[in-house]
Write a structure and sequence with these properties.
Strand order of the largest sheet of chain A: 3-4-5-6-9-10-11-12-13-14-15-16
Number of helices of chain B: 3
Shape of chain B: elongated
Number of domains of chain B: 2
Helix content of chain A: under 10%
Structural class of chain B: mainly beta
Mean pLDDT of chain A: 89
Structural class of chain A: mainly beta
Shape of chain A: flat
CATH topology of the largest domain in chain B: Porin
Number of helices of chain A: 1
CATH architecture of the largest domain in chain B: Beta Barrel
Radius of gyration of chain B: 32 Å
Largest interface: A-B, 35 and 42 residues
Mean pLDDT of chain B: 85
Number of strands of chain B: 23
Number of domains of chain A: 1
Order of helices and strands of chain B: HHEEEEEHEEEEEEEEEEEEEEEEEE
Oligomer: heterodimer
Order of helices and strands of chain A: HEEEEEEEEEEEEEEEE
CATH topology of chain A: Outer membrane phospholipase (ompla), Chain C
CATH class of chain A: Mainly Beta
Largest sheet of chain B: 12 strands, antiparallel, barrel
CATH architecture of chain A: Beta Barrel
Chain lengths: 292, 446
């Protein structure tokens, strides 16, 4: 409880004042936006990517995604809020050079339900209510395809991944979360000749930390998954993958913000068809058109 | 007369205080919206009587009696008014929900906000309460003078929910036929290949949706991505993209028989037939050192006939049968599959805590080519029975204990001698969504 409260307090302090105006006026009375939502819009990005590979040079990369974030009251459990994030057709590509690579996800969603007072109900004759200091969340992704041309033939296709998560931060906005919990996934891995199935039946753990300032100028996301995956008839393999993304608004053109972004990923026994260990980093610029 | 405005200003300034005052909780939505200031005294502002000073106005309002023993419960299906009673240290705003019984001249009163642990009024409004019928300026003191008593109570809660003394509401009825679930179980199995029960685990997930038809005599069910993954001694994956079925309760019997032993008695016989459809059902089975067998049912259509169903159609015992097209993806051919099943699903209690299911499925393949190591027209017989009980709920989501037993006979696996396999499973299942059941019982009033 103490740690959770401390984290919540730190997040509140860092997030800034929730009442600061989002539209200011210049000396001539012309309005301009100073608050942005990095979770909504058509995301387009360019970056310089580097990867831990023999002879790998820095190469340009592009990215795109459709982002949509909602906040709504629960229909089946009125009085509590759902904070939902949707990412559609999230794609990153390194189209040229000796590091040609593509990774795309058809859909990824995060759904967190915030309750003023979390609890565990023990259904005795007079229902017993015990404190439970977590929000509950569920995350799911469908259809993640990765093709690494520089690795030779083959692909990795994660058909689905889902996780049930706890959130000790229990933020009252959709701008901060610290989620962790067990995950299950199903993956097809092809070396160009044979396709093998991999399953992680709740034998992996997923961590997802997201934080952004109230004005959306700073945006930080850390996501990691680690655990055992099994190919039917074979021994399990431990694998881990983590990604950190930090963004800062540089400037806005006609109220459309441009973010500078830095990304770092690390894979342990999980990069490509051959399950290599690998790090990758990129530095780039991102815009989110039609955002809020 | 010229000094009057000046006096008003001075008076206003004198009434301001630098002493910080604990801010009362925000008024319940609806009070201001309906033009009723929370602290309005009886008759104040109505033009009917002169305004009383705040302290006297408060004293003029009826007081809620101190609690004696267990608090009574307001009824969810009876009219509730919102009004202002005498404020107290526990309820400084004086805002109450009030439900009166004219026969016994008792009004139940409950604060409009959730109470803190110490019993004082907090900032969070009550949720899942019926809308107040009026936000009137009714002079509750008149009722007190008529002999009405104002007793502290627990606010009303909708069917399937209960409210505690602090006003916090919690769900105690769960519809497990409407949920998104994830589960894990220990699932040992024994077979001719592994005579001793071998260690195996199961992960399962899926989405279940159930909704009645407009006239109430049809119940539709949709299951999405219903999946079971077994790892260990006998690896298996069983997943279905979508399944849809419906049950019908016919208004009139198909026929009836009248018996004349003693007095005449009429016996109705209904023909409650429905449909059952499935698309993209994958069964991946691996035994011993054999390659995995992948059987993909492209589509299946079956006629169902209810042997019995509950009045709400949720529980049933039925038979169903029909054809399907199945692809053996490893060997690349398609067969016609005949299926027949005895299918039962029972919910034992009104709040949906106890469930049992039974499924006996017989399948036989036709028009399949000769496959080395297995019989022509192979068949499968699968028997499964299980019990699921909700034992706790976390943030209104049920966590249930799942017990399953199953037996399978099959001769469709090349290189594997036909025979029985037995399995038992015990595990946990966590369900999202799971709203209160449509037939949930209301909270019992004290």
């Amino acid at each position: 409880m103490g740690l959770a409260s401390g984290l919540s307090l730190a997040v509140v302090v860092l997030a800034g004042s929730p009442t600061a105006p989002c539209t200011l006026e210049d000396d001539r009375g012309q309005p301009f936006r100073v608050c942005f939502d990095p979770g909504t819009g058509l995301e387009l990005g360019v970056a310089v990517d580097g990867r831990q590979a023999p002879g790998a040079a820095l190469t340009p990369g592009v990215s795109a995604a459709i982002l949509y974030r909602t906040e709504r009251e629960s229909r089946s459990k009125e009085g509590s809020l759902w904070f939902n994030e949707h990412r559609l057709l999230a794609t990153r590509v390194q189209p040229g050079g000796d590091q040609r690579w593509l990774r795309g996800t058809v859909y990824q969603g995060l759904f967190r339900r915030h309750l003023t007072e979390g609890f565990v109900l023990v259904p005795t004759a007079k229902p017993l209510r015990l404190p439970f200091p977590f929000d509950l969340a569920i995350t799911a992704s469908v259809g993640t395809y990765e093709r690494r041309v520089f690795d030779g033939p083959g692909f990795v296709f994660e058909s689905g991944k889902a996780a049930v998560l706890l959130d000790p931060l229990r933020s009252q906005t959709g701008k901060a979360h610290l989620l962790f919990g067990p995950a299950l996934s199903h993956t097809l891995r092809s070396d160009g000749r044979e396709v093998t199935q991999e399953i992680s039946p709740m034998t992996s753990g997923l961590v997802d930390f997201g934080f952004e300032t109230e004005d959306g100028w700073w945006n930080l996301r850390l996501v990691g998954v680690a655990g055992m995956v099994f190919t039917p008839g074979q021994a399990g393999v431990f694998r881990a993958r983590g990604e950190a993304v930090a963004e800062r608004v540089l400037f806005a053109v006609n109220d459309a913000p441009l973010w500078e972004s830095a990304r770092f990923t690390y894979a342990l026994h999980d990069a490509g068809v051959a399950r290599k260990d690998e790090w990758a980093a990129s530095l780039g610029l991102t815009v989110r058109l039609f955002g809020r | 007369m010229a000094t009057a405005p000046l006096l008003l200003v001075v008076s206003a300034l004198l009434n301001q205080s630098d002493v910080p005052v604990e801010e009362p909780p925000p008024p319940t939505p609806g009070f201001e919206a309906r033009g009723m200031p929370p602290s309005t005294a009886p008759g104040e502002g109505s033009g009917e009587a002169p305004a009383l000073p705040p302290a006297e106005a408060n004293l003029a309002r009826p007081q809620v009696e101190p609690a004696k023993g267990a608090l009574p419960q307001m009824h969810y299906d009876q009219v509730v008014h919102c009004g202002v009673l005498r404020s107290s240290p526990q309820v400084p705003s004086g805002q109450y929900r009030i439900q009166c019984n004219d026969k016994i001249k008792v009004c139940l009163a409950t604060p409009t906000h959730v109470l803190f642990d110490d019993g004082t009024e907090g900032p969070e409004p009550l949720t899942r309460v019926v809308e107040c019928a009026t936000y009137s300026r009714e002079d509750w003191a008149v009722k007190a003078r008529e002999g009405y008593r104002f007793l502290p109570a627990i606010a009303d809660a909708p069917p399937g929910w209960v409210r505690d003394e602090r006003g916090r509401v919690m769900q105690v009825s769960f519809d497990l036929n409407r949920r998104v679930y994830l589960g894990a179980a220990y699932a040992p199995t024994a077979s001719r290949l592994n005579p001793a029960f071998g260690g195996r685990t199961r992960a399962d997930f899926g989405v279940a949706i159930e909704f009645p038809g407009e006239e109430g005599n049809v119940l539709n069910r949709i299951h999405l991505l219903e999946s079971e993954i077994f790892l260990g001694a006998s690896t298996e994956i069983d997943t279905t993209l979508i399944r849809y079925d419906w049950s019908v309760s016919r208004q009139a019997p198909l026929f009836w028989i009248t018996t004349f032993f003693g007095s005449a008695v009429r016996h109705d016989f209904s023909f409650d037939a429905g449909g059952w459809f499935e698309a993209l059902h994958l069964e991946s089975v691996k035994r011993g050192d054999q390659e995995a067998n992948n059987f993909l049912t492209l589509g299946s259509a079956q006629l169902t006939l209810d042997l019995w169903h509950s009045r709400d159609l949720v529980s049933y015992l039925r038979v169903r049968a029909g054809p399907a097209a199945e692809v053996d993806t490893a060997r690349g051919f398609t067969s016609l599959k005949g299926q027949a099943a005895l299918d039962g699903n029972l919910t034992f209690d009104a709040d949906g805590f106890h469930h049992a299911h039974l499924l006996v499925t017989a399948e036989q393949l036709y028009f399949d080519p000769v496959v080395e190591g297995r019989a022509v027209n192979p068949s499968r017989l699968k028997i499964r029975a299980g019990y699921e009980v909700v034992f706790i709920a976390i943030n209104d989501y049920p966590l249930s204990l799942v017990l399953d037993a199953r037996a399978t006979w099959r001769d469709d696996l090349p290189g594997v001698l036909p025979g029985w396999e037995y399995g038992g499973e015990a595990g946990l299942r966590f369900s999202f969504w799971a709203p209160a059941r449509r037939g949930a019982s209301p909270q019992k009033a004290n």
